[in-house]
Design a protein that fits this description.
single chain; mainly alpha; 2 domains; 14 helices
């Protein structure tokens, strides 16, 4: 039998090979005997499709769910789940896979463009559509031939915070601020106060470590060493681990949080679990401080930019950011080139000064 458990899932998974193809899906049951029966039925169905020419139909929704399940416990899984919610709203997911048409693809594209969504985001939507379609085709279901659009990826100027912008943002996020439109600090409910402190502390750590939002928002105290002032950072996206040394203000933030900790996580939701993806307060902070064109990922760019502007090489920054490929770090190459150009100018000036000195003759 090819019934097994995968990762932390409570369900039994069915996985086997037939005619050189790998078939995998969740049985949606915790009963192993039921899962084995589903496996036998699935094998009979695939055998009939292969030798009797019978092809089963399936809805796009069902094959999409199966496809996402195959990516469970991979760095891409969270993104696929997020894209699934979008497709549920704007794509005809209840239609059969073999009934999908180019018109459906184009209509979805028009909707997303009308919503002013970037091509990069639309590409992620289509990655899920294409991946599900290919998976259904691979498993032998009926499918239609559709063409996927080629999206041009715009190149944007690298956006990072200046020191002045950082100061303005932190002022707007200050949990103890007293300004027009906010409840006096002394009168704020305890939960509101804590939420504001969480956002402020989170931004400090993101700026000073260059870590991704998800890496810090879900980090546990078992990854924090206040004695050595280090953070052991697991990076799910690239599946590697880094050890980062704390800046003084990160150490101060974490020390204060440790004194008042009530969970195994540094940042928690209201039930004590890891913090949810909630970036709205930060986006509002950008807006109030008049900072345009920034997202939470801007903190990562800010950290990398400051390191390079102050002498670290691209390869050193690659290690700090946890990039698996130097080509990803190359987006900051122009900053290093600017520094090299300045050094080159200094070298030439020194050479010119020495070469233009008049010869001194002793009479």
């Amino acid at each position: 039998m090819s019934v097994l458990k995968r990762g932390n899932s409570k369900f039994w998974y069915i996985q086997f090979q037939f005619q050189g193809k790998t078939y995998i899906k969740s049985s949606k049951t915790t009963d192993k005997r039921i899962a084995e029966r589903i496996e036998r039925e699935w094998k009979v169905l695939i055998h009939s499709q292969q030798y009797l020419g019978e092809k089963e139909s399936i809805s796009f929704k069902d094959i999409m769910i199966q496809y996402i399940e195959t990516k469970e416990n991979t760095p891409n899984h969270v993104t696929l789940v997020s894209r699934c919610r979008i497709l549920t709203k704007y794509f005809p997911i209840n239609r059969k896979l073999h009934e999908l048409s180019n018109n459906d693809i184009n209509n979805f594209l028009k909707i997303r463009i009308k919503q002013s969504v970037t091509n990069q985001t639309i590409k992620k939507d289509f990655d899920l559509i294409r991946g599900s379609w290919k998976y259904g085709k691979k498993l032998g279901y009926q499918y239609s031939d559709i063409e996927f659009p080629t999206l041009k990826m715009e190149k944007h100027r690298l956006r990072y915070l200046s020191l002045d912008e950082e100061k303005r943002l932190l002022s707007e996020l200050n949990p103890y601020r007293e300004d027009t439109g906010t409840v006096l600090s002394s009168k704020r409910p305890t939960q509101i106060k804590q939420d504001m402190i969480d956002v402020y502390d989170l931004v400090i750590i993101l700026i000073d470590t260059g870590a991704r939002y998800s890496e810090i928002s879900k980090i546990g105290w078992d990854s924090i060493n206040l004695t050595d002032k280090t953070i052991r950072l697991w990076r799910p996206k690239v599946r590697n681990e880094s050890v980062l040394y704390m800046s003084d203000r990160v150490y101060s933030v974490l020390t204060n949080r440790f004194k008042n900790k009530s969970s195994s996580y540094v940042f928690t939701n209201r039930k004590g679990g890891p913090r949810n993806t909630a970036t709205l307060p930060i986006r509002k902070g950008f807006k109030r401080s008049g900072i345009i064109g920034c997202t939470v990922h801007t903190f990562r760019h800010t950290h990398a930019t400051r390191l390079i502007q102050n002498g670290l090489s691209l390869y050193e920054v690659k290690e700090i950011l946890g990039h698996t490929d130097i080509n990803t770090t190359m987006r900051y190459a122009h900053l290093e080139r600017k520094d090299i150009s300045y050094k080159a100018k200094e070298v030439i000036n020194k050479l010119n000064i020495n070469s233009n000195k008049p010869d001194l003759k002793i009479i």
